[in-house]
Amino acid sequence: MLNVSILGATGSIGQSTLRVIAQHSDKYQVFAVSAWQRMQDLVEICQKFSPKIVAIPEAKVSEFQQLLQQQQLKSPQIVIDDQGLIDIAQHSDVDIVMSAIVGAAGLLPTLAALKAAKKVLLANKEALVMSGDIMMQTAKQSGATLLPVDSEHNAIFQCLPQHYTSDLSVDKKPKQGVQQLLLTASGGPFLNHDIDTLAKVTPAQACKHPNWSMGQKISVDSATLMNKGLELIEACHLFSLDERFVQVVIHPQSIIHSMVQYVDGSTLAQMGSPDMCTPIAHALAYPERIVTDVKNLDLFEVAKLDFFAPDHDKFPALNLARQAMRQGGTAPAILNATNEIAVSEFLQGRLGFLQISQLVDKVLQQSQFTTAHDLDVILHADNQARHDAKRLASQIFA
Hints:
Elements: E1 2-7, H1 12-23, E2 28-34, H2 39-49, E3 53-56, H3 61-70, E4 77-80, H4 81-90, E5 96-99, H5 107-115, E6 119-122, H6 125-142, E7 145-148, H7 151-159, E8 178-185, H8 195-198, H9 203-206, H10 216-224, H11 226-238, E9 246-250, E10 256-262, E11 267-271, H12 277-285, H13 299-302, H14 317-327, H15 331-347, H16 353-366, H17 375-397
Parallel strand pairs: 1-2, 1-5, 2-3, 3-4, 5-6, 6-7, 8-9
Antiparallel strand pairs: 8-10, 10-11
Helix pairs in contact: 2-3, 4-5, 5-6, 6-11, 6-15, 10-15, 11-14, 14-15, 15-16, 15-17, 16-17
């Protein structure tokens, strides 16, 4: 029986992880979970899975305990705030850590899990965007296993030669006959909208993804294509490649989750229904395979697959991410921090949809980039970018 710690258990990835674990209670048990806001959902998780430890904000402890009492449930051990997340990520009894916290908040606990040599299932792309070199080096030094859960990176992992990631090249060039990675993107809900229409997009429209069920922040990122930009940076770190070897392909059906092209003319694709339980199950059981309740792909029902090049005029976020990756150092952390603030301002009605990328661009242009040689430098750049983004956003809104 393997003990699993789920960082972000009440989010969409966390819920899908619980769904897979519930099907395999003979192999996995939920040892610890974290939640930020949804205490009622957390109580339901405790009722069904009986975790030994929960990590929550200190401000939510009273509410959580009251809800437990109402359900006549015994309280698990409670750990609080950022240290609580770190505690359940590096706990000596934990075998597998699902890193599914959205945004920069997932950085420190994910790093702690890697230092503790856990098997880490990475759904928090921001951790690699902010400090990819540190993350990958930490995993190598500790002997931790780092497996991608994002459907695109998991697809690439499945299509690469066996053991490709065990000996990543330092020159950032493909090896073992690989030519380039093809990172697919649905194009989001506004793929066929013109720029004038995009200027009037509401948060509700941006959060309605055509294929995937996701949280608000990642849904908006998908609509701007910033999510694909962050995934591009993540892919560069996971597979030790320069960004010029990662091509983004718009694929509206979300059936092919990504591809790998080889020097002999072969292109390998991983296909499946758009359901996160598939990559979660793959990473959870790797190198074995386990059953899920995901519907098998019906190619006759799919009928056709479409592919397009990204429209960089309508969706400039993708090029901003490429520029940040080329710049290196603290640039990706600044990109990520500014985007988090911009999306938050948009969701609160204080920025327009097109102004999300505009704000990111402005902060990047005025920022001073440094070498990201340690975590303190990265966190300082992150904090400064958030301050700059809030200041510039207030000027735009005014």
